[in-house]
From TrEMBL:
Residues 200-262 form the V(D)J recombination-activating protein 1 ZnC2 domain. PANTHER family: V(D)J RECOMBINATION-ACTIVATING PROTEIN 1 (PTHR11539:SF0), VDJ RECOMBINATION ACTIVATING PROTEIN 1 RAG1 (PTHR11539). Residues 66-198 form the V(D)J recombination-activating protein 1 RNase H domain. One of its GO terms (molecular function) is zinc ion binding. GO terms for biological process: adaptive immune response; B cell differentiation; chromatin organization; T cell differentiation in thymus; V(D)J recombination. One of its GO terms (cellular component) is DNA recombinase complex. This is RAG1.
């Protein structure tokens, strides 16, 4: 059933958020309901995909996999200029989802067949808002409280299947979530890292700004979400009774409890570093007109 409408974003969360009246602070859809309605919107596309791949309708009732891209970003200043009403933060955060692809693994097949791929995955037209919150994205505690119920629903859905009528037959769907739509500021927020001014640049490795600027190539991912949680515990309990500076050095920029697990993929910062190195080479070659020489030596390149 997908007739649950917009609900109070704090439902599913027991404690109160003090500063603003809780009934004004957030509105959201239940995660599973939002996914059902997004899938129903794609019903015709999925049926067409099944027909094109020559899959018999009745053979494909289970084995559907849906890849979800989650995005979350702050929306800047949205203050009322002359408004009355309750006191709410003057920034908003929107959490939204995009169905990236739907694939199906038929019972007797080895490989899954993709029956739908979102043609414009970065367009706002394919991006379905799930939750709208009056909150400053750098207010870690309130953001955690508001996204907590969403994370709980998402974790519940990872292990369960959704049975939904598509093309007149009940079909079973599994969901895979990828949090690839967060910008660097939001990723740091979700991972419980210090904000962007921190000397530790990355959510997944321990290099500081100084180290990153010295070494633009040899970056590797050295930690994951569980380890960030362990570091938060160290930060919270300070088991070695260290000074503030020593403690920061030990946890490498983790300062709050991470509440969204992120995939240990190449993050934006490391992409930037890698791209910078590549472009640097290209610019040098272009400026020095190295392309005119046949197999230039290292010395010729450098000069």
């Amino acid at each position: 059933s997908c007739n649950v409408g917009i609900i109070n974003g704090l439902s599913g969360w027991s404690s109160s958020v003090d500063d603003s009246p809780a009934d004004t602070i957030t509105r959201r859809f239940r995660y599973d309901v939002a996914l059902v309605s997004a899938l129903k919107d794609l019903e015709e596309d999925m049926m067409e995909g099944l027909r094109e791949s020559g899959m018999e309708d009745s053979a494909c009732t289970s084995g559907f996999s849906v890849m979800i891209k989650e995005s979350c970003d702050g929306m800047g200043d949205i203050s009322e200029k002359h408004g009355g009403g309750p006191v709410v933060p003057e920034k908003a955060v929107r959490f939204s989802i995009t169905i990236m692809s739907v694939s199906v693994l038929a019972d007797d097949e080895e490989e899954a067949v993709t029956i739908f791929t979102e043609p414009k995955p970065n367009s706002e037209l394919s991006c379905k808002p799930l939750c709208l919150m009056f909150v400053d994205e750098s207010d870690h505690e309130t953001l955690t409280a508001l996204l907590g119920p969403i994370v709980a629903e998402r974790n519940a859905m990872k292990d369960s299947r959704l049975i939904l009528s598509i093309g007149g037959l009940p079909r079973s769907f599994r969901f895979h979530f990828r949090g690839t739509g967060y910008d660097e500021k939001m990723v740091r927020e979700m991972e419980g890292m210090e904000a962007s001014g921190s000397s530790y640049v990355c959510t997944l490795c321990d290099s500081s700004r100084a180290e990153a600027s010295q070494n633009m190539v040899l970056h590797s991912i050295t930690r994951n979400h569980e380890e960030n949680l362990e570091r938060y515990e160290i930060w919270r309990t300070n088991p070695f009774s260290e000074s503030g500076e020593e403690l920061r050095e030990r946890v490498k920029g983790v300062s709050a409890k991470p509440f969204m697990e992120t995939q240990p993929t190449m993050d934006a910062l490391h992409c930037d570093i890698g791209n910078a190195t590549e472009f640097y080479k290209i610019f040098q070659d272009e400026i020095g007109e190295v392309y005119q020489k046949v197999n230039p030596s290292r010395e010729e390149r450098r000069s």
